[in-house]
Amino acid sequence: MSTLRTALTELVGVEHPVVQTGMGWVAGPRLVAGTANAGGLGILASATMTYEELEAAVAKTKTLTDKPFGVNIRADATDAPQRIDLLIRENVRVASFALAPKQELIAKLKDAGVVVIPSIGAAKHAKKVASWGADAVIVQGGEGGGHTGPVATTLLLPSVLDAVDIPVVAAGGFYDGRGLAAALAYGAAGVAMGTRFLLTQESTVPDSVKQEYLARGLQDTTVSRKVDGMPHRVLNTELVTSLEHSGNVRGLVAAARNASKFKAMTGMKWSTLVRDGLAMKKSSDRTWQQIIMAANTPMLLKAGLVEGNTHAGVLASGQVVGLLDDLPTCKDLIDGIVADAIKRIDALGALRA
């Protein structure tokens, strides 16, 4: 089949300008390898993994594919330097970050030949990481799932493209060839998708939960601050509705309980959790209440996305969920998107008099 060569495919060495985002509890070795073998860039989610689990996940992914893939790291994690050493040692192609990594971390990765692609939510943040040496950025508009901002992709994307001269990957609302063609027309180097890849055959999310997503419409997501104190786009569920109507005290009690569960699950010491909280406070403008509530997120997402308990868990989702009605393989998904994008680009060219 025909392919699209962009600054992203050249930079990373993948066949197609399509990225599968590093979704916590979702983007494991099977999904990442499925994306990579289909010619896209798959990104492992390490924020919900211990260091040992990440080490095992990287090794497993390498047994399933010999294509380039990436790992998403929490830049403010206490053990971020150790995780970066692991990426370098294992020759992982891409380091992806949900928050801006320190300048010295970017330099260390680049010196080792690792491509650095932070996710950002504003033009000023793109300019900052570009000045620090980031190779590209992923920019997610408000339509996207999980942590998201208030500005739609159609406005956020051009503002970032005008601000930097490194490759920009568009996220938030993408799921088909029309979206890829549109992003490329804006000047983006590719698209990144989360919800669309969550709803594939290689995704390990329980089938019952996938059906929950497929049953939803365009109005069936909410941007809630009650999950972890930050704007978080999730599916409407009974739990989300009750959280939205709960008081701050109830939310803090639930957060503290979930923090204790997360500590037990990961084997983290309380001192490590506190140190991570202090680092988060220093690197952002979050209140202490928001930081305590952030401990909620891993356990609430795990309950829904891993254990299939939609009553006790939270299901992160982009608005695009309302337009999805199938569970393709990663190969069928990416092949279809690229083929359709090429047709639409050709059709646009035919409009010229």
TrEMBL record:
Gene3D superfamilies: Aldolase class I. Keywords: Flavoprotein, FMN, Monooxygenase, Oxidoreductase. GO terms for molecular function: nitronate monooxygenase activity. InterPro entries: Aldolase_TIM, NMO. This is Nitronate monooxygenase. It comes from Rhodococcus jostii.
